[in-house]
Design a protein that fits this description.
The chain is an alpha+beta fold. The chain has five helices and eight strands. It has helices spanning 8-14, 17-46, 51-56, 138-141, 144-172; strands at 58-61, 71-74, 87-88, 95-97, 106-107, 112-114, 120-123, 130-132. β6 and β7 (120-123) form a beta hairpin. α1 (8-14) packs antiparallel against α2 (17-46).
């Protein structure tokens, strides 16, 4: 995501550059924080994952006066099915998980079982070898529609937040 505030260069030149830079920095950090909260809420509307688990994989680098940028890095590998409320069914070797709230529970076709640590496992082909059942990763949960909604949030809020922060720093001097 790229945030541009219109006319900010002229404002910094004309007014006190220190106050304007402080206001821009604080605005960027507030918008980043609001965006992160919004994205987590949007993902949780569709996916069966706790906010704590989601935030654990979102790394934040807040804006500073030197660089004036807010970086949100979202990384994770595919989750094991145990994170999505895996349940044993009555049929032998069958399990189900609830990944998306809208789609209902999905039943695994192959025989599955649970390890001592709670991980859901399956046989690999017709061999004795076992492997974990992988599902979606955190970056896959953030789709284009969600990111576009976040961009609209930023567009609607940035002028108001900047104005409030600028007035705050002007009043301090």
């Amino acid at each position: 995501m790229d945030i541009k505030i219109k006319g900010i260069d002229e404002l910094i030149v004309k007014l006190n550059p220190k106050v304007a830079k402080q206001a821009v920095n604080r605005t960027i950090n507030e918008l980043g924080s609001k965006t992160r909260t919004f994205l987590v809420k949007e993902v949780r509307l569709n996916y069966n994952i706790s906010a704590k688990d989601l935030k654990q994989f979102i790394k934040i680098k807040k804006s500073r006066y030197a660089d004036l940028s807010y970086v949100m890095d979202i990384r994770s590998s595919s989750f094991n099915a145990k994170r999505f409320n895996a349940k044993k069914l009555k049929a032998k070797g069958k399990m189900s998980v609830l990944i998306k709230k809208t789609d209902g529970r999905k039943v695994f076709k192959k025989g599955t079982f649970v390890a001592k640590n709670g991980a859901v496992l399956q046989r690999k082909g017709n061999t004795q070898e076992i492997e974990g059942v992988k599902t979606v990763s955190i970056p896959q949960m953030f789709n284009e529609k969600t990111l576009q909604k976040a961009d609209k949030l930023i567009e609607n809020e940035h002028e108001r937040i900047f104005k409030n922060n600028f007035n705050f720093y002007i009043g301090k001097e």
